Amino acid sequence: MILKDSLKSFHKVLDGLYDKVEIDSFFYLLVAKYYKVSRLDLAVQPDYQVKEYQKLFDALNLLKEEYPIQYILGETEFFGLTFQVNAHTLIPRPETEELTEIIIEKLKRSKKHLKILDIGTGSGCIAISLAKYLPNSKIYALDISKEALKLAQSNAELNNVKITLIEADILNSDTWDTEFKKQQFDVIVSNPPYIREKEKLLMKANVLDHEPHLALFINSENPFLFYESILEYAVHNLSSKGLLFFEINEYLGKEIMTLMRKYDFTQTELKQDLFKKDRMIIASM
Length: 285
Ligand code: GLN
Description:
42% of the residues lie in helices and 20% in strands. It is of the alpha/beta class. The chain has two domains: 3-65; 78-284, Rossmann fold. Helix 6 packs parallel to helix 7 (125-133). It is elongated and about 65 Å long.
């Protein structure tokens, strides 16, 4: 079969569901992965043939079900690095890249060997990028999910960095070991679950039906639960000149800033993402 002909099938099945440019990009990403040929290769050799095309059509069926392309490929790019992803972890988002960039910019000139904790590490995207670009620091990555920690470890190996994994539930101090209870960190960062159940209506099926709800949602009754627990931990375990970085729900910036002041984080800075949405808070005491 001429490989490029199957692009027509992609459009036939997916047009209407996705943007045409996006469908082209899905096709070329899959072809690059499965057949090791690039878009340019196919432009130069438009009649390039393949014998086995079942996997391409399996992927097409998954896309039809709005299964995220990153899960189909099993990997994605974050901050110029490759990360494996699976259904146990959130797909890293561009706004989280912005948060990571802010952290690196703030800390890269530090002469200190910083100890940094990432709470709710998921695929490990924040922790591993920090380990890569702040090579003098020691990075700890915490998650409640064993499966997520397994993936974070394998992503650390893939990117040739060392991180220390901590399995614990930040909401429940009974799950913290004595070591974790007494650790002191220079920096704590978190992109905790922050979508309220009532915001589900605004979400697309590809996210809602396939990404882990544990990583996305919080109870609308108390949308600040994770922030409160992290602040409580930070009050005791962040060094005196330490910094706290949060990714936040765009609708809750003011409230989280107020909450932080209650925990004595008096210096707070709210930052917007590329889409001008309140998305990040940097704080210190
Ligand atoms: N730290 C990971 C990320 O930023 C996972 C976050 C989460 O699961 N809420 O993508």
